[in-house]
Amino acid sequence: MITFAPLKFANKAQSLENKGSMLRIIACVSFILLGQWTIAQHDVSAHTTDTLHSAEAIHADAGEEEKFNPGEMIMHHISDAHQIHFIGQLYMPLPVIVWNHGHLDVFMSSAFWNGFDEHGELQFKSYTASSGVTYENHHESIVIATEGGHGHDAHSASHEKPMDFSITKSVFGMLFIIVLMLIIFRSVSAKYKNGGATKAPSGLQNAIEPFILFVRDEVAVPSIGKKKAGRYMPFLLTVFFFIWLCNMLGLIPFLGGFNITGTLSITLVLAALVFLITSFSGNGHYWGHIFWPPGIPFGIKLILVPIEVLSIFIKPTVLMIRLTANITAGHIIILAFVGLVLLFGQTSAVAGYGVGVGAVIFMIFMFFIELLVAFLQAYVFTLLAALYFGDATQEHHHEGDHH
Amino acid sequence: MEGLLSVSVGTVFWASIAFIAVLVILKKMAWGPILQTLEEREQGIANALKQAELAKEEMASLKSGNEQLLKEAREERDRILKDAKEIGDKMRAEAKERAAQDGAALLANAQREIETQKKAAIQELKNQVASLSIQIAEQLVKDKLSDAEKQNALNSKLIEELKAN
Fold first, then answer.
1. pLDDT digit string, tens, across residues A300-359
2. Which residues in A lie closer than 8 A to residue B13 (C-beta atoms)?
3. What residues pair up with A138 in beta bridges, in sequence order?
4. Is A258 on the interface with B (CB under 8 A)?
């Protein structure tokens, strides 16, 4: 599912070249299946002497025989980045946009690139923008290089951070999905406009329509009610297809290993919109039940009201965390199995084989689970958003109906 | 971007702009027309179903009407057939009767004719016999009178007869 090239795997595979070339094939198969790619880079690029610091500085610092660190590898793959890594040494630069004390610096992230080390890992250097400020890519976070010290103290917290408005991997993936949505729904909508109500759906329209009807009839109408559901349909449909397509993009091999809906910043925006829509559409009944729940003794009210007020914020927060955690967890599980193969492969090729076969089977299984989760999480987010909207707009039915 | 749980202002910024933009664009461009068309289609389907139901009912009533008509037609046919049969029977009976009457009249005529003819024939026969008898008698007389002895004998016989009377 993460299509980031696990460069360290390549190193391991290389170090085990004599006894473990078959192991490498197993690793390759598992990566290909899961959209990963491992490549044993033998041609070492020359310009690594003036490496300022590598993204994997820990290894460089260690100096010892490199030990494969699955935790670090997994975090590297699921985190956001300033470039998209397709295969081997094929990287796609992304725009870096930083706002630093009134200066706007825009450049491609390839300005940081400094070739590849002997393990085929991308090395980074500092870059002095046209404004004269020198920036560094410090663990995928843009920092301003301090005077003199060219980022050798990679771990020091003294780096000053500019406002980073870069088009990162997740932002790029999100924009890609948005363009895709515009293309898909433009053509689908054109069919509806041209065909009218009397023409049977065809083609892509046929594929999309069940989901639109699903969101309307299974999510919006039961939660909000037929009368008011129409008002929230555009948001619910957009959020449903956006989350689903973003989740699916993360499952497509060789596309850069997007973890868009596993990026907290993006789910935060979705959850904030749910919060805003809920709050603005909340009627007197809704707010009344929060600030002055009827039919409850005064003493209880003192306890209940703060809880109700907190719940306004907790609800969207939970939405945000659930989506992020589910998608990220799925990515982590699969990466963990990949890590397992290589970890065992370090001790012996036979162990790598054995674990590799089992891990690949389990990863295939997980892949199917993830396809389900991709849909399920889109559904759950949409359903809960709809329930919150329904809660905010429900008419006064009868006492004690509130929950 | 450093940790998994950190929030990047830049990403939030782009995500807000992009998502709200796509929401607004899709609302105008896609969701509005799509949902409206779906609504219309559903309305159309509901109407079509309703009309089908009505047509079915109409068909049923039409069918029962047809059956009624058929029943009436059948009754009419039966009645006509019955009448026709009655008339036929009557006509046949009349014809038979007339034929019998005619036959009887003819027979009576024929018998009457036969009777007349018979009488005429008997009369004729009588006349014939009478004339023949006269002729025979004439012959006999002539013969008897030609001989004096015989004439006397006859005379005497006739006188005898007269005397006897």
1. 888 888 898 999 999 999 999 999 999 999 888 888 888 888 888 888 888 888 888 888
2. 165
3. A141
4. no
Helix, strand or coil, per DSSP, at residue A99: strand
Q: Is B46 on the interface with A (CB under 8 A)?
A: no
Q: Is A403 on the interface with B (CB under 8 A)?
A: no
CA max distance for chain B = 202
Determine the distance in angstroms separating the CA of B47 from the nearest CA of chain A, rounded to an integer. Answer: 12
Structure tokens at A130: 């046209």
Instruction: Tell me, yes or no, if A245 comes closer than 8 A to chain B by beta carbon.
Output: no
Tell if the CB–CB gap between B11 and A266 is shorter than 8 Å. Answer: yes
Cα A111 from Cα A131, distance rounded (Å):
15
Q: How far apart are CA A66 and CA B12, in angstroms?
A: 37
Residues of B in contact with A109 (CB under 8 A): none
Which residues make Cβ contacts (< 8 Å) with residue A339, sequence separation at least 6?
A: A68, A70, A73, A74
User: In B, which residues are within 8 Å of A193 by CB distance?
Assistant: 33, 37
**Can you tell me the distance from the alpha carbon of A49 to that of A138, in angstroms, rounded to the nearest whole number?**
18
Neighbours of B23 (CB within 10 A): 19
Q: Which residues pair with A113 in a beta bridge?
A: A124
Which ipTM did the prediction report?
0.75
Quote the CA–CA distance of A144 and A160 in Å, as a whole number.
Answer: 5
Tell me the per-residue pLDDT of B21-60, one tens digit each, with 9 for 90 and over: 999 999 998 898 899 988 888 898 999 999 999 999 999 9
